[in-house]
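Fold these two proteins, one after the other.
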Amino acid sequence: MTRRQIVVLVLLAMIWGASFLFIKLALREVSPLMIAAVRVALAAAFLAAVSGFPRQGGLSTNFKPALWRSYGVMAVFNALIPYILIAWGEQRISSGLAAIFNATTPLFAFLIGFKLGGRDFRRTLGLTGVAGLVVGILGVGVLVGWASSGDLLGEAAVVVASASYAVAGSYARSVFQGQPVLVPAL
């Protein structure tokens, strides 16, 4: 990795990790549903600005009408389910524990890819991939073992949210090939 990539990765980790703290703080004043709505609105505004959406013809040129149902599926699995469940879960568990459980997303992505990826995916997995999966599961297990809250519903909500992110990622790879990345994200 280049130095620039490392800096960007660290900044992304800081922003992503801090979001769990901000959710916890916001829960003092607003409901999980309101937090989800604000997150979606802020993300949409940011993605629209970054993608140049308003300057490039809006809906008529950026979104393919045949994919509207697919955009809806992405919205449910990549925003609606995880945003609400993470905020709901954080009413019962710490923000740090929520962040740890969110770290299971790549593990779910691997399992979904393995199940749906077919023979080619399994063949390319190799010993390194299996070792990475085992280390990831053990790592999350060790971290959760140190910090478990005892509130299984709150923990399960964040784990289901993480699995939902993984479903969305797998779905996006299969449905939105050839589209600019920011279009289905928006």
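Now the second one:
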Amino acid sequence: MTGPALAAGWIVPEWPAPANVRALVTTRAGGVSRGAFGAGAEGGMNIGMASGDDLEAVQANRRRLASLLPGEPRWLRQVHGAVVASVDGDDVPAQADAAVAATVGRVCVVSVADCLPVLFVDTKGRAVAAAHAGWRGLAGGVLQNTAAALRRRLDEPGAELLAWLGPAIGPERFEVGDDVFAAMTARLPEAHRAFVAPAGSRMLCDLFSLARLALAQAEVHSVHGGGLCTHSDPSRFYSYRRDRVTGRHAALIWRES
């Protein structure tokens, strides 16, 4: 990475990605946002333009992030869907919740605050992808679509892929209703294993387990990361479920030459 040093607490994935691949997830720390978007007495690294934060602060945070990267991240207009955009070109992508790129220096990015960011690369480091996977995206097949788009970009249907699961709301905090259970079991035959029904009317849902099931369905078997809960660590992570008024993290991946 180039430019200033990473802020303390930012996440660099530990996974067996090829040496030419770089990835990063921001946390609350390292920016200029204040109030609900801050980081204690320090400025917060909110990158969410529609979060309710001061837009000048968000833009300053995005500039700070871009200074660490080989190029401007290809920001998506996310809608909790399953569309995958190619960001190799110069056009701004339409609405999409995942991005794929093979161009060196082209940065794929998704923004999250409880939803699960999933990063992808093929084992030869020829193309990368990032996906925004909340329960709606998972039910819509966003991870399967992303794996398929990455293989199409490589023109190799059987390409072996790696995936890394970033921070998201954890299985002890993600309360859902019957609608989520029905949507997920319709998509993934084994999805019932990711739900627990404690006393009360709500179930607990494990996004990490659902993502692993979706990736297995897409024949992505080398899956890493998972387990960091945004909801239960307010000093480090933004969480929409916990706070409602909150910032967004960025999960990014790119290729170097």
